[in-house]
Automatic annotation (TrEMBL), chain A:
<feature type="region of interest" description="Disordered">
    <location>
        <begin position="354"/>
        <end position="382"/>
    </location>
</feature>
<keyword id="KW-0378">Hydrolase</keyword>
<protein>
    <recommendedName>
        <fullName>protein-serine/threonine phosphatase</fullName>
        <ecNumber>3.1.3.16</ecNumber>
    </recommendedName>
</protein>
<keyword id="KW-0904">Protein phosphatase</keyword>
<dbReference type="InterPro" id="IPR015655">
    <property type="entry name" value="PP2C"/>
</dbReference>
<feature type="domain" description="PPM-type phosphatase">
    <location>
        <begin position="112"/>
        <end position="409"/>
    </location>
</feature>
<dbReference type="GO" id="GO:0046872">
    <property type="term" value="F:metal ion binding"/>
</dbReference>
<dbReference type="GO" id="GO:0004722">
    <property type="term" value="F:protein serine/threonine phosphatase activity"/>
</dbReference>
<keyword id="KW-0479">Metal-binding</keyword>
From TrEMBL, chain B:
<protein>
    <submittedName>
        <fullName>Protein DOG1-like 3</fullName>
    </submittedName>
</protein>
<dbReference type="InterPro" id="IPR051886">
    <property type="entry name" value="Seed_Dev/Stress_Resp_Reg"/>
</dbReference>
<dbReference type="InterPro" id="IPR025422">
    <property type="entry name" value="TGA_domain"/>
</dbReference>
<dbReference type="Pfam" id="PF14144">
    <property type="entry name" value="DOG1"/>
</dbReference>
<feature type="domain" description="DOG1">
    <location>
        <begin position="19"/>
        <end position="260"/>
    </location>
</feature>
């Protein structure tokens, strides 16, 4: 069994390796906003942030994998900016199991997941990750809970990504409560639009509560208008996976060993996106890869006011019925996808999940993580998978921030 | 393993007393680094799992060797800070990659990720099955997070020192300097008096540069030690191998290149002369 997986993986590894060099550098460049002035119709487009801001980078990786009660506590110290999120992050892989143990009645279907988010070979950290199990609170429609996973990859500065991290799940929750019987598509589109508005209102000077962060652009207009973020959000319910995406972060489902992308990257040269941009009166210019107005290398994003209406914040939403063959869901920023194919990522993740059922490797006398019951070991599996994927991205010379979330979808493990 | 001289520490004491140059010290230091590299490489091959503790003294010794380097550098910097900032003992290749007279601290993480990546690609399948490799491919979640945090902190400090360096460098055109330059151009002073005024004007600038260099070197050494502290002894050995190999080889390539360029210049001049 393991041997078979190995073979499959090897092949995938080689295939993806041949694809990498061009796409890797191209995508990497894609995340940088180009610095040149551009005048379109009657509006002068402000030069994007020069990157010489005085403020230092914020830390953005924070996960709140705890029950709603404690969530507010933790969020408060995050906002104060004094807490080292690393310490929290450290707890991430450990906490779910612990939380599930202590309060099983509140979170009966506690998801198993692993998360890794590192600066990698970049000097700035612009990725942000949000994980909120049972984020919607007690909901008669979903007694077993709905879980929220979001990966945001900022560009220009980090504050749009951090604002998404801090607010998106709350907005989605509000929309769900207000939605009544409206569809998931509608709910998620509304949520993304609201998120975009919130980010936009920050940048137009009406400082809201979301602007507490001190980022290098200092939330000054006009630079602030040239800041945005990707957003890939997965809401996992007992029977469905709802993925909403803006930009080039990606969600991939691993089902019975097969990699199924649940989002399609918004690249400006995607034929339908190209059409949409041109019909809106915009242009895609090849300047170090295809870019909207020659500036932004993705066609949808939260923020980026100055590129509206060509760059939109409306997500594409996919709804996938969960099956017994589902193994895991991977959400990641392009720091991973630029250098690791969907197939390889799935192969690595499922291998980690499958092999973590009490392994007794002969070479692991000094193992620092103990593998106990099957339930907990799969948590370790997710955590190992996210770490290994991150390390693999770094090994393959990813030059971007790397953020990876792996969610275990197997039933009854 | 023999501990015969010249060792950097022995040499350090000796050289300072004898008024020797930093260049001589550096050459001895490199010889010793080469020896350490050999020891590290053979240790990485020989030591089995049961014997990992035995690597600690070796790691400690190698890190101490780096410490000696910075002690020596600080001593010589008090004598001639400018020489330390444009080190003649480095090749022009190395010069091109210097940050305030030495290696850039954030480079330590690229070194780690590169070496870790090479080892990871080699053992990916073992790792996927949950096996432990023990080398740098096996960085745990906790280690990766510590490295990431240290990297962010290091970049922040690196930027702070860079800012301070900028402020210091800008003082080269402050009023006193400009005034003095104009005065000397107009020749109002007697030559002797002029020189003493120049010395007096440059002294605080050099002191300022010395402070910056001290901060930069401190950050370099701190970063190295903190990375080593995060790693297991086996991982530290692999890391130190990569560090030493990169340092020694770049030095070697640079020196060869400089020699080749010098050779070409000479040949060219001879050809011109004879033409």
């Amino acid at each position: 069994m393991a041997g078979m997986c190995c073979e499959v993986n090897l092949a995938e590894t080689e295939t993806s390796a041949t694809v990498q060099p061009s796409s890797r550098s191209a995508r990497r460049r894609g995340m940088e906003i180009h610095q040149f002035k551009f005048v379109h119709s009657d509006s002068a487009v402000a030069p994007p942030h020069s990157g010489s801001g005085k403020r230092k980078r914020q830390k953005f990786d924070a996960v709140v994998p705890v029950l709603p009660l404690r969530e507010s506590e933790i969020r408060r110290d995050q906002l104060s900016g004094e807490v080292e999120p690393e310490a929290k992050q450290l707890r991430v892989s450990v906490q779910p199991a612990a939380a599930a143990e202590t309060k099983p009645e509140v979170a009966p279907d506690y998801p198993k997941f692993g998360m890794t988010s590192v600066c990698g070979r970049r000097r700035d950290m612009e990725d942000a990750v949000a994980i909120h199990p049972s984020f919607s609170g007690p909901n008669p429609n979903f007694p077993d809970g709905m879980h929220f996973f979001g990966v945001y990859d900022g560009h220009g500065c980090s504050h749009v990504a951090t604002t998404c991290r801090d607010r998106m799940h709350e907005i989605v929750k509000e929309e769900l409560e207000a939605a009544g019987s409206s569809s998931w598509e509608r709910t998620m589109c509304e949520s993304f639009l609201k998120m975009d508005k919130e980010v936009g209102s920050c940048s137009s000077g009406r400082v809201g509560s979301c602007c507490a962060s001190a980022c290098r652009c200092e939330l000054q207009t006009p630079q602030c208008d040239a800041v945005g973020s990707t957003a890939v959000v997965a809401v996992v319910t007992p029977d469905k996976i709802i993925v909403s995406n803006c930009g080039d972060s990606r969600a991939v489902l691993c089902r019975n060993g097969v990699a199924i992308p649940l989002s399609v990257d918004h690249k400006p040269d995607r034929p339908d996106e190209l059409n949409r941009i041109q019909e809106a009166g915009g242009r895609v210019i090849f300047w170090d890869g295809p870019r909207v107005l020659g500036v932004l290398a993705m066609s949808r994003a939260i923020g980026d006011n100055y590129l509206k209406p060509f760059v939109i914040s409306e997500p594409e939403v996919t709804i996938t019925e969960r099956t017994a063959e589902d193994e895991c869901l991977i959400l990641a920023s392009d720091g991973l996808w630029d250098v690791v194919s969907n197939e390889t990522a799935c192969g690595v993740a499922r291998m980690c999940l499958q092999s973590r059922k009490p392994p007794s490797p002969p070479r692991s006398p000094g193992s620092d993580m103990t593998v106990t019951a099957a339930g907990e070991s799969s948590d370790k599996g997710c955590s190992d998978a996210s770490i290994l994927l991150t390390k693999l991205a770094l090994a393959r010379h990813s030059t971007d921030n790397v953020s990876v979330v792996v969610v275990d979808l197997r039933r009854g493990c | 393993m023999s501990t015969s001289p010249p060792q950097s520490l022995t040499y350090l004491t000796h050289a300072i007393n004898e008024g020797d140059t930093f260049e001589r010290f550096f050459e001895c230091w490199l010889v010793e680094q080469n020896k350490h590299l050999d020891e590290l490489v053979s240790a990485s091959k020989e030591v089995d799992a049961a014997d990992r503790g035995a690597l600690r003294p070796l790691v400690k010794r190698v890190v101490q060797h780096y410490e000696h380097y910075y002690v020596a550098k600080a001593r010589w910097a008090t004598a001639d800070i400018l020489a330390m900032l444009s080190p003649s003992w480095r090749s022009s290749l190395e010069d091109a990659f210097l940050w305030i007279g030495g290696w850039r601290p954030s480079m330590a993480f690229h070194l780690l990720y590169s070496k870790s990546g090479l080892q990871l690609e080699a053992r990916l399948h073992e790792l996927m099955q949950g096996l432990r490799t023990g080398d740098l491919s096996d960085l745990s979640a906790a280690q990766l997070q510590q490295v990431d945090a240290l990297q962010k902190e290091t970049i922040r400090k690196e930027q702070e020192v860079t800012e301070k360096q900028a402020e210091q460098q800008e003082t080269v055109a402050d009023t006193s300097m400009v005034e003095l330059a104009l005065a000397m151009t107009e020749g109002v002073d007697a030559p002797d008096e002029g020189q003493s005024r120049v010395d007096a004007a440059l002294a605080p600038k050099q002191d300022g540069l010395a402070v910056i260099l001290r901060m930069a070197d401190q950050l370099r050494l701190d970063t190295l030690k903190k990375v080593i502290d995060i790693l297991t002894p086996t991982q530290a050995v692999h890391y130190l191998i990569a560090a030493a190999a990169l340092h020694l080889r770049i030095h070697e390539w640079g020196k060869k290149r400089d020699a080749r360029v010098a050779q070409n210049v000479t040949t060219h001049n001879i050809e011109e002369d004879s033409a």
